[in-house]
Amino acid sequence: MKDKNIFTTFEAARLLNCDLTTVIKWVNENKLPAYRTPGGHRRIRKEDLLNFLKQYNMPVPDKLGDAIKILIVDDDPESVELIIGYLMKLGKDHECAVARDGFEAGRKITDFKPGLVILDVKLPGLNGYQVCENLKKDEATKSIRIMAVTAYASPEDRHRMLSLGADAYLSKPLNNEQFIKTAKKLLDIGE
Description:
Blueprint: E1 6-8, H1 9-16, H2 20-28, E2 35-36, E3 42-45, H3 46-55, E4 68-73, H4 77-87, E5 94-99, H5 102-112, E6 116-120, H6 128-137, E7 145-150, H7 155-163, E8 168-171, H8 176-186
Parallel strand pairs: 4-5, 4-6, 6-7, 7-8
Antiparallel strand pairs: 1-3, 2-3
Helix pairs in contact: 1-2
C-alpha cells in the first residue's frame, strides 16, 4: 500500500485498524478530508490521511509510511556490506543506495533524496568533510542527517566533522549495537 495514493474508506479503516463506521464518521465530521467519485463512493488521498494522523497525534502505520531512504557513501565494499547488514536490524522499512565517492554521492543525493547519509570520511576525490560541508550549506539538503564513519578516528577528526554539521560520528570497525542505536536516533525510530 506504500505506492498507493488513494484509499477507499474500507482500506483506510483496515490500515488504521479501526471500524469502517469510524472512518466514515471522521469524514462526515470533516476531520478527515475525502472526495466522492461519480458513483458516490468516498476516496481519501494519502497525504490527507497522513495529515489527519499527524493532526490527531495518531501513529502512522508502517504500511502507509514511506520507506526510509539511506545513502551509504563508502569506497570499501566490505564496509558497505557490513553497514547494509546492520541496517537490516533497524526494524523499519528502508531503501538503501550506495555511492563509492563524494562526486557520486552528490548525484545520488539529488536523485535519491535520502533522509540519512552514512558517510565515510576518507573518500577518493571529494572527501567526507567536503561532502558534509556541501550538504549542510545547501538549503535543499541541510536537513539530511549525516552519520560520519571512519577508520582513522581522532579527537580532531571528530571535532572537525561535527563542526561541519555531521549529526553523529562513529569509529570503524563499527559496533553493531552502537551503530543501530545511532541510526535509530537519527531517523527518529523508537526502540
